[in-house]
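Open question from group meeting: does this chain pack into something compact, or does most of it stay loose? Before anyone orders reagents, we agreed to write out a predicted structure and look at it together. Recording both the input and the output here so the notebook holds the full record.
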Amino acid sequence: MEGIAKFDVPGLPEPCKTWYKVFGDFNTSKTPLIILHGGPGACHEYLLPLADLAPSIPLIFYDQIGNGSSTHLPDRAGDEAFWTVDLFRKELDNLISHLGLSERPIDVYGHSWGGMLAAIWASTPESSANLRRLVISNSLASMDVWRLGITALRDQLPDAVQKVLKDAEDKKDFESPEYEAAVEVFYKRHLSLARPWPSKEVQAALDWFAKDSTTYGTMYGPSELYISGSLRDWTSIPRLSKIKAPTLLINGAQDEAQDVAMQPFFDHIEKVKWVTLENAAHFSHVDQRERYIKLLEAFLTMA
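Structure tokens returned:
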């Protein structure tokens, strides 16, 4: 089932549209899982391997506003006051209300940026009173700890690649073929280990960034290796103790979301389990699909 949830955003002349798709039937006693994609702006397709969980677990995928099948707002590119984490938190609240799930238990899964959003939503009591279980996958508790991990990985790249990256940043030229090739070296090591490269899931996310970079460019930057957007000083750490639902953390051993980026989640969330998958990078759900799905299923169906 596919649908549209209208979402009123202050300052816009008409409501935005949040596109969603349901796998399975959430009109049963089974707890539905709402899936928050990364980016911002990577859209839902790259997370479709999670559909392996259906029909035993009802799933709700959606595209956050700004890209995919939801409302695009290219005229708001660069508008940091508009593209806020709170905007996307309210969009999630609105979707939950639209689906009639506000008064019943739900589970929430967030990947990468989606994990950041999930952490903020889950630590907002008026939003998440009905949260049963939380999954934060391949994500980061703050930009400061994220930078520590990214910098350590970047320092392991070949010298010639590091030079291209630095030269591009010095010149603020992120569109040259040389820069794109250098970024791909990093992505092949730390975005996904699946071969042949790129997997259809990686390509789906990269394609959306290319089609409409409004949210990613405004909130993050030109690539994973250069953080210039409004999230540059973001942190969830002071709020994490407010998360009361049992929480599963997942990352990959070769993940750009290194352990240092995930550690504050483990330190500050009360009921938490953390699993790091070997032979997996940022797209752990692709690199180790079977193990990943079994891990999620065990956590979400545990009595």
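Observations to bring back to the group:
The chain has a mean pLDDT of 97.
Strands lie at 2-7, 16-23, 33-36, 59-63, 106-111, 131-137, 247-252, 272-277.
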